[in-house]
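#struct-pred
JK: can someone run the complex with inosinic acid? inputs below
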Amino acid sequence: MKTLIFATNNKHKLEEVRNVLDGLVEVQSLKEINLAGDIPETADTLEGNAAQKAEWIFERTGKDCFADDTGLEVEALDGAPGVYSARYAGENCSFADNVNKLLAAMDGKTNRKARFRTVICLIENGEKHFFEGIVNGVITDGGSGDMGFGYDPIFLPDGYDVTFAEMPLDEKNKISHRGIVTRKLLEYLKQNENNKK
Ligand code: IMP
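RT: done, structure tokens with the ligand placed:
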């Protein structure tokens, strides 16, 4: 089985990615390989940040690895918070701070359309490969649900009447940006394996 290091300290992301790759790719967390430190993400695109995080791991381990970067892009806010989703309410802010700031920014707005976009950068044999996953939906008026993380309580995916935070992980993964992009990564890895045979 192929082994990949996942450049994240977010246990929710790790769980979601493992749920897709389980039994097919061994995903090592930073904790498991004892790699500590603040991974930089200072680029102004999701692609740039995903690459920066994966490079940080590759420089320290020389091993195949990947990173993801996610943005919540809200139409009425010209795509904000986008690449700045993690620190929308300021440095060291909580998920709740971000959610509250977004709800305040959306107060009175009738266009509630938004999308989550995730970019994965895989570094394999020193070479970068990019994959993208998108899910469309709307921003709700108030939060509901306590599963998931981040902006999940206020994101209602198109075609559903529950937020991501009201869905068990399995269900969220079937339709989410991260589920989609992780399956693309898996398809690429499988294809690569087949080409070697
Ligand atoms: P990053 O990819 O870790 O930089 O994530 C950016 C921001 O988006 C963070 O505040 C995350 O909590 C949030 N985020 C990332 N993925 C998800 C998700 O699947 N659901 C809800 N929020 C997310």
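RT: quick notes.
The mean pLDDT is 96.
Strands lie at 2-6, 25-28, 65-74, 81-82, 113-124, 127-139, 155-157.
JK: thanks, will look after standup
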